[in-house]
Amino acid sequence: MDKKCVLIVDDHPLFREGLKSLVERSANYRTVGEAGSGKEALTLAAELKPDLVTMDVSLPDMNGIEVVRAMLKVIPEAKVLMLSMYPKFDYVSEAFKAGAKGYVVKETTSARLIQGFDALCRGEFFVDGQVSQDLVAKLSAAPTREVPTIQEERYALLTPREQQVLRLVAEGVSTRKIADSMKLSPKTVENHRTNLMKKLDVHSKMELVKYAARVGLVDMDSWR
Prior knowledge:
Layout: E1 4-9, H1 13-25, E2 29-35, H2 38-48, E3 52-55, H3 64-74, E4 79-84, H4 89-98, E5 102-105, H5 110-121, E6 126-127, H6 130-140, H7 150-156, H8 160-170, H9 175-182, H10 186-200, H11 205-214
Parallel strand pairs: 1-2, 1-3, 3-4, 4-5, 5-6
Helix pairs in contact: 2-3, 3-4, 8-10, 8-11, 9-10
Domain Response regulatory: 5-121
Protein name: DNA-binding response regulator
InterPro entries: CheY-like_superfamily, NreC/VraR/RcsB-like_REC, Sig_transdc_resp-reg_receiver, Tscrpt_reg_LuxR_C, WalR-like
């Protein structure tokens, strides 16, 4: 039986190396490529047409969930397994809406990860560990849960780093101080702010602040 081809997408080289080693040791899978950014992942996916894709949520240039959505337009037959540090319901929900078939936290075991691959290849969905617990808790509360607003849905699509930048900008922290606290360059912080404005469809710093207030990050009274 031919081994299934896996494309690994993660911005940490050491993590990619470890995951590649795991895949290569397995009986039914082989690594066909690695990508450290969203754009690179889309290019390789179109070129290599992998059977499986492991996708990190947080990438330096794009949200992993956005990458999944774009990738599946090009190779709809691919099975995507999200592999992330973030087991929260909003991330899981948005990932599955985008077309992912599985969601696993990075603390999972090698055996469970391969089980996830196997499940996706059988046409099944797969969630693991903390993800399952969080899903059960949220779905159990579903009857009383309000439908998310457009603002909340857009916020859920931001990467954790973008969410942090949004909160700090809304709190009135300067670009230089944000850069220092997050150990980034001021230019990178400005790029994050530009991306935030595009994703949230706002056009000024004050609109960013108002948006942050609507999703509960800051109190607008503090700006008066």
